[in-house]
Every structure is written in structure tokens, then in C-alpha cells.
Design goal:
Helix content is 25%, strand content 29%. By secondary structure, it is α+β, with helices and mostly antiparallel strands.
Amino acid sequence: MATVELKGITKTYSGNDVPSVDDLNVRIEDGEFVVLVGPSGCGKSTALRMVAGLESISGGDLFIDEERVNDVAPQQRDIAMVFQNYALYPHMTVAKNMGYPLKVSGLSKDEIARRVKETAEVLQLDEFLDRKPGNLSGGQRQRVAMGRALIRQPKVFLMDEPLSNLDAKLRVYMRSEIAAIQERLGITTIYVTHDQVEAMTMGDRVVVLKDGVLQQADTPKELYDHPANMFVAGFIGSPAMNLFESRLEGDGASLRIVVGEQSVGLPDSVVAARPALASHVGQRIIAGVRPDDCYDAKLSSEYPVRLNARVLLLESLGSEIVAHLDVGVGLVDSGDPDLQELSGDAADAPTAFLARFSPHSRVEKGEDIAMAVDADKLHFFDPASGLAIRG
């Protein structure tokens, strides 16, 4: 196993003044599972390919096991990589596909057979060793591709969007399988995905990138509970955090936010936990709250903070009701280019405030309701920098 450290790693392509990866600093510990995530074109795959040696490094230093490897050939870095298209040999059986790297390395037939058998047992491929890739499901082919990489017993395991070609149900199954296999083997793993749900459910730590720049690197819980900026707040979580314009008013000790025509007092606990808010009194700020922290006030008397809202649409999902609400202000763009592409012009971006209500809620479309908010879970951001306003 090994550590991997990216120190100021930069990648700039010829003819492009804007770096694809800009001054990336991340250390991945021995046996850690780290996920690189971000919207399309954020530089995550480029960063992975630099670790693999498939892309040259324009600036900075890359270390594997404390050894600088910027100029070390890919085959000498003791890494293995799995791509999204599997890259299996269609004319070879599963056993021969998995054993091929060992054959090229000159190992004996007996040693190859032993390691193929061991790896197949780990990946639950025992019964498929004599089949060819064309006779396997997408999930089985993905496991064969993993097996061909793992059989080399590399120091570092790299995975680039390995589940993108699978259907939604199989992706859910395979992400738990991959996480379990990695934990069992303890191989240092760097995994790239554009899917934040995949990242949050698989990684020990998640590295969020935007436009080639590191936004935040932390545990999934910390990213969810304490996003460093508006982009992370909007990108992490499904549905996304509600980000909306407000104005902070008060005298420093007693604060309130003005949301449209509504004035909402902030509990003392909220003010005490965020002393930096005091310097923003009288200013426009961006407030944020996750749909999970909003409730039908008729069912949630424990949360005294209220926002009046009109119900625009209800999605009944059985275990919950996703309510689309109008609270008197539109939502603020978090800066996620994938969402901007979906919505087209920024003026056409969704403005509905989302809340996850209990299935026992009896709210109706078109009704004016009181929505309870867990004030301790409110987030505040500086509109100029986009950074979180904390202590």
C-alpha cells in the first residue's frame, strides 16, 4: 500500500491560458478511499491521469510513497487503473483477461492460476472464469476489469468513472460492492465521478473540484454539514441546498434575517455559534438551508423558526413528500455549471424552495402554509466571495 500526495499540481494544455488543474494540494493516506468529484470539465479526470502518468504535469510535485514520480513512467509507478469502458479483450475468457497482466510480467502458469482464483473469489467471479465478456452483464464486466487491475496487487488503485455505463439500479449495487472490496483489501484508492451521491456514499474523504480548483476536501459528513462555500453547498446534497437572498439586521446580539417581506429571528444559539455574522449586520447575505431541515410546521412544534410559503407542487415519494414552495424570494445560483446547462439561461433557473416533508403531512397544492426550519442547520454565505460565514 502507499500514500499519494499532490503538491501544487497544475496542468495547462498548449494554447490554453487557463489551467485544467490549478495548484491542487491533496494528501491521500495509506489505505484511504478518496473520491474526486465535480461537474463536467472540472479537472478531476485530468488529475487522476496525472497520478497515473498518462498526462504530463505542468507544475508541482507528485509523490507516491514519499517518492517524487513526476518523471517516472506509468508502468513503473506500481499503480493500476480501471476505465469506464472496461477495456476487456472480447476473445479472451474472464480468467485470461484477469491473468493477462501477470502473463505479460512473466509469472508462471501456476502462480497466475493461483492469483486468478484468489481474485475471482474476492470479486465473486468464480463461476464466470470460463466465460467471455460478451456473455456477462455490465456489472460482471466491471468486476472483471477491477479484477484485472487488482490481480497485480498494486500500491495504488485508480478508477475513472467506472460505473457511468451501468443503469441506475446496478450503479447503486456496484458502488456498495466496490466500497466493500476496497475496505477488505485496504488498497489506497482514488476514484473519479461526477455523481455527488456516488462520492458521498463511497469515499472516506471527498475532494470537490470546480474549474480545476480545489473547493473543499473533507469527510462526506463535514462536506454536508459545513460546506466551505456556496458551490459546495449547492453541489453536495440531493435535492440541493436552498440558497436564497436575505438581509441581516439587528444589533449584534439579537439578529434576524429578512427574506423577501418576512423577518425571521435567529435563536441565540445560532448567533453564538457564528460570531462572524455580527460584521455583516445591515448587509445582504446569502442564507441556505437543506430540504431535509425544513418541516411542515403543523407536525414540527420543536422548531420555532417559521417561514410562510405557498405550495407550488407536491411530489409524493411514499417515504416522504418533496414540497416545491414559494417563500417570496428566488433561489440563488450556486455556480454549478451542470445545473446551468440544464436550466439554460440563468433567468430560467428553478426558483422553487424545496422541503422534504413527512408522508403524514396534509399540505395541499396552492395552500399557504407555515414551514418550520431547524435554525441550527442554517448556513450563511458572503455574496461577494461565496465563502461560508462562520466563527
